[in-house]
Design brief:
It is a single chain. Helix content is 39%, strand content 8%. With 190 residues, it is α/β, with parallel strands linked by helices. It has a domain at 13-136: Copper homeostasis (CutC) domain (TIM Barrel, Alpha-Beta Barrel). InterPro entries: CutC-like, CutC-like_dom_sf. Belongs to the CutC family. GO terms for molecular function: copper ion binding.
Length: 190
């Protein structure tokens, strides 16, 4: 993941230069994909966050063909602006979007929004995509656990899911048991 700070998805010129250096370093060390997302700074004339097409596109190009996932910055885009945001993400060349839906909830709380994103919004975009552009895959994340992944899959039929799979008593340790339970629950669902 290329993210110089966790304060927001708005990055200064200094932050952006650090992102480029990090991407170069990780690419040289053999990274086979990247996760990042940059939004434009809000101005009085532009109250809603938007995709920073120029900067995201530059990073996608720096990935040199490795897949890039647009990070949960998408969650800050209002649903009324999803069509524009999705078109911008396609223009940048992202292969996937990691999202929980609107920023005020988990994937479970936003399952209806995720269903609309996966089944309606991407389909509407399909007819407008030019040339050989590929639609991004939706990766559902945000509170995904073994106890809810089956319901999320049944409701959204999303092609991919992301879970931190953290141990209940830790904010940094992955639980092997949770990973196994996630896989088992998804296998039963599919």
């Amino acid at each position: 993941m290329i993210r110089p700070h966790a304060e927001s998805f708005y990055y200064s010129d200094t932050d952006f230069e650090a992102m480029k250096r990090t991407m170069h370093s990780l690419r040289e060390k053999g990274a086979d994909g990247f996760v990042f997302g940059i939004l434009t700074q809000n101005t009085p004339a532009q109250a809603a966050p938007r995709i920073d097409v120029a900067r995201n596109k530059e990073l996608v190009e720096l990935a040199q063909g490795r897949p890039c996932t647009f990070h949960r910055a998408f969650d800050l885009i209002s649903e009324s602006n999803w069509d524009t945001a999705l078109a911008d993400i396609v223009e940048c060349g992202f292969t996937s979007i990691l999202t929980s839906g609107p920023s005020d909830g988990t994937a479970i709380e936003c399952v209806d929004d995720l269903d609309r994103l996966v089944h309606e919004r991407l389909e509407q975009l399909r007819g407008r995509v030019e040339g050989h552009a590929r639609l991004p895959q939706i990766i559902v994340g945000g509170g995904v656990r073994a106890t809810n992944i089956r319901m999320l899959w049944e409701r959204t039929r999303a092609p991919a899911f992301h879970s931190a799979a953290l141990a209940q008593s830790s904010v940094e340790l992955v639980s092997d048991a949770e990973v196994e339970a996630l896989r088992a629950a998804l296998n039963k669902a599919t």
